[in-house]
């Protein structure tokens, strides 16, 4: 099963990805997570990506496309994959299509996490992430049992540098301009299922599972 999860910043892509991966054990390809790992290791790619990510801007297509290509080449995708945050421009969608066309890596289904932009600020500013395992929390919507400590692995929780209102405005703008057309690209191929992402995490998950059973 090859999946793509799409949606604006804070729509809940990462939160649903955790659950999908738990259930189906497929390869997670989150370009945001890969960039953040590169930044933490202070690689050349990380330093370049950071100059865009901290401002809320998209990293250039050629950099992102070749990163995904090499990630796919070195990872086990025999059970399928879940793309999270890629492709998010038409150029990326075309490049990925070229990469997988005619192979068993073509996308089977696109889950579109539909949410009004006005609820995103609360989600983004309250998000906390585990430094060690990447588990996603929210100070009120999904708090950890002990403040600042991950329930799963005991790691420290941190706030993403781009989770500010200022950067969110840019991210929403980038999404509207560059990523929304990608949704139409996959809708034309008949691949998109829309999920109401403006519900509790449990209700969103229940809808995602229904969509994946079809
Ligand atoms: P990326 O990491 O992909 O960030 P994003 O798209 O902005 O999305 P987020 O990760 O912020 O949100 P999410 O939808 O995963 O929400 P989450 O589940 O965490 O990209 C970051 C940056 O990297 C980009 O801006 C760009 O610079 C660069 N980049 C990445 N990919 C790129 C690409 N392909 N091309 C170029 N550049 C790229 O949830 C958010 C919060 O809400 C959490 O606290 C969560 O607990 C809470 N929450 C989740 N669901 C619910 C719910 N149903 N109810 C209540 N609270 C909820
Ligand atoms: Mg995410």
Total domains, how many? 1
The oligomeric status of these chains comes to single chain
Q: What is Rg? A: 16 Å
Q: Main sheet?
A: 5 strands, parallel
What count of helical segments does DSSP give? Answer: 8
Record field, number of beta strands: 8
Which bin fits the share of residues in helices? Answer: 40-55%
How would you describe this structure in keywords?
binds BIS(adenosine)-5'-pentaphosphate; Rossmann fold; five-stranded parallel sheet; three-stranded antiparallel sheet; alpha/beta; 8 strands; binds magnesium ion; 47% helix
Report on the architecture of this protein.
The structure is a single chain. The protein is an alpha/beta fold. It has a single domain, classed as 3-Layer(aba) Sandwich (Rossmann fold). It is built from eight helices and eight strands; from the N terminus they run βαβαααβαβαβββαβα. A five-stranded parallel sheet has the order 2-3-1-4-8, sandwiched between helices. The protein is globular. The two termini are 12 Å apart. The model has no long low-confidence stretch (mean pLDDT 97). Bound molecules: BIS(adenosine)-5'-pentaphosphate and magnesium ion (MG). The site of magnesium ion (MG) has 3 residues, from helix 1. BIS(adenosine)-5'-pentaphosphate binds next to helix 1, helix 2, helix 3, strand 6 and helix 8.
């Amino acid at each position: 099963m090859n999946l793509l999860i799409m949606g604006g910043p804070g729509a809940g892509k990462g939160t649903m990805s955790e659950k999908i991966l738990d259930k189906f054990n497929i390869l997670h390809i989150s370009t945001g997570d890969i960039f953040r790992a590169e930044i933490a290791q202070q690689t050349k790619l990380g330093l370049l990506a950071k100059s865009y990510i901290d401002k809320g801007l998209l990293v250039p297509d050629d950099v992102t496309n070749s990163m995904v290509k090499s990630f796919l080449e070195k990872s086990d995708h025999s059970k399928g994959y879940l793309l999270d945050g890629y492709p998010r421009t038409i150029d990326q969608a075309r490049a990925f299509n070229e990469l997988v066309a005619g192979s068993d890596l073509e996308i089977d289904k696109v889950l579109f996490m539909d949410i009004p932009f006005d609820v995103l600020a609360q989600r983004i500013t309250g998000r906390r992430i585990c430094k060690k395992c990447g588990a996603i929390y929210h100070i009120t919507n999904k708090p950890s049992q002990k403040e600042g400590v991950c329930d799963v692995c005991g790691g420290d929780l941190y706030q993403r540098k781009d989770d500010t209102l200022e950067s969110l405005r840019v991210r929403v703008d980038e999404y509207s301009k560059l990523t929304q057309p990608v949704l139409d690209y996959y809708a034309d191929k008949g691949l998109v299922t829309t999920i109401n992402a403006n519900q509790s995490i449990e209700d969103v998950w229940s809808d995602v599972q229904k969509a994946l059973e079809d």
